[in-house]
């Protein structure tokens, strides 16, 4: 991730249409039967299937290898959402053919054996938000969609996340990831971070003056909990990973890891709720056979 830097209660998460093929009594998104009963604060390893929407975004290198780049979040069997800056190299958008996605993985290495449930797919389309301009706009609109070349088969270890429509100002979010590519965690880990009121976050920011503008209005602001000596679980390679929250037995995607500020004391998550309309319209554009509307 770049390093310059009242929950309105609802029981009806935003749900994309391709998830409706499940039985009406079953959760259609945000289902994670192996998720931890309590949110972890210090960065713990998680079992396979604890966060089944989490995917790894990899970039193909010239030597035929796959380098881990960012996290991503499955929202339908064929579409993931991630941070837009993950798709750029030196401010240049990379073509879809440069990327691949792995789902159902516990280990970060592309070739590491994870079991029979792993699905690997080329990326057919990369769609950054049209207003994204990187550092020129302080990483606002840092959100993008990835369309897979083939839909994923859903199950216990691969399942879409609900799109959140609310945010607890004084609550916690859980973030899962492998960390930085230079010192990546071998196994998937998760950590709980506090989400703060935007005004309070800006008012208490103690970093350098040039970093403050990177807390853009489309960000959820999170801070490292007091007593923690280091920012557990969040590093450059965690960009695009989801900040998620459980609600009535289902997990909701609230934000995407975007920027780290003040030496890792503050984090900015792209607020997914602000881009729900764009996600919906873009999904319609890339799925011409769909002529309905999203379930609310």
From TrEMBL:
Stated name of the protein: Peptidase S1 domain-containing protein
SMART domains xrefs: Tryp_SPc
Phylogenetic classification of the source organism: Eukaryota, Metazoa, Ecdysozoa, Arthropoda, Hexapoda
Any one GO molecular function term: serine-type endopeptidase activity
A single GO BP: proteolysis
Coiled-coil stretches: none
Start and end residues of each Peptidase S1 domain: 40-284
SUPFAM superfamilies: Trypsin-like serine proteases
CDD domains reported for this sequence: Tryp_SPc
């Amino acid at each position: 991730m770049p390093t310059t830097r009242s929950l309105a209660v609802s029981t009806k998460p935003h749900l994309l249409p391709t998830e409706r093929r499940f039985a009406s009594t079953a959760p259609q998104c945000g289902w994670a039967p192996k998720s931890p009963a309590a949110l972890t604060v210090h960065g713990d390893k998680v079992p396979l299937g604890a966060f089944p929407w989490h995917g790894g975004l990899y970039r193909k290198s010239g030597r035929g290898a796959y380098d881990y780049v960012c996290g991503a979040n499955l929202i339908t069997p064929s579409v993931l959402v991630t941070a837009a800056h993950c798709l750029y190299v030196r401010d240049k958008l990379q073509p879809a053919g440069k990327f691949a996605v792995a789902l159902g993985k516990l280990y970060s290495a592309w070739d590491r054996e994870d079991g029979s449930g792993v699905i690997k797919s080329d990326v057919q389309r990369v769609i950054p938000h049209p207003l994204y301009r990187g550092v020129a706009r302080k990483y606002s609109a840092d959100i993008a969609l990835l369309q897979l070349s083939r839909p994923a088969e859903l199950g216990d270890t691969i399942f879409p996340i609900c799109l959140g429509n609310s945010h607890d100002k004084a609550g916690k979010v859980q973030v899962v990831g492998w960390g930085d590519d230079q010192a990546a965690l071998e196994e998937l880990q998760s950590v709980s971070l506090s989400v703060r009121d935007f005004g309070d976050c800006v008012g208490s920011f103690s970093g350098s003056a040039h970093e403050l503008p990177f807390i853009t209005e489309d960000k959820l602001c999170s801070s490292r909990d007091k007593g923690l000596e280091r920012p557990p679980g969040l590093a450059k390679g965690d960009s695009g990973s989801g900040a998620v929250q459980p609600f009535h037995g289902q997990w909701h995607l609230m934000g995407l890891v975007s920027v780290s500020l003040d030496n890792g004391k503050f984090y900015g998550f792209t607020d997914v709720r602000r881009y729900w309309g764009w996600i919906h319209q873009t999904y319609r554009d890339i799925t011409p056979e769909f002529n309905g509307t999203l379930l609310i």
